Amino acid sequence: MASNTVTTVWKENMQFETDNPSGHKIFIDAGKENGGNSDGLRPKALMLSSLAGCSGLDVVSLLKKMRVSVADFKMIVIGELTEEHPKYYHKVLVEYHFYNDTLFSKLEQEKINKAVQLSVDKYCGVMEMFRQFAKITTTNHFHQQ
């Protein structure tokens, strides 16, 4: 059975350094309003980044297999927190934005929509984890540069 291990070390004040199985490290910190220095990523926002990264990796891989190229691609993830403690994301919107130098053909849009749907429904494990506690909505947007 596959597993991942990370080590998180308290550095000072409210700042922590955490690693990743790839060996890369990032800092996690609280905002000034919560006693930190804002010198790192916030834990809950980092969860949204993980969701976008997981799905984005799927989409890029699938588009490559489908031989669909785009000039640019980004995701905007908006998480709505509950009012009561412990505050957690109960609603999440994932916006997929695709950019091209020319107009997207109908076939390209269909393939891109399929790639996103496969990520959302089948491949992205982080998306599945989020579904355990949040209502997730996704939208696709096509832009001409």
Automatic annotation (TrEMBL):
It holds the Pfam family OsmC. Gene3D superfamilies: 3.30.300.20. This is Osmotically inducible protein OsmC. The lineage of its organism: Bacteria, Pseudomonadati, Bacteroidota, Flavobacteriia, Flavobacteriales.
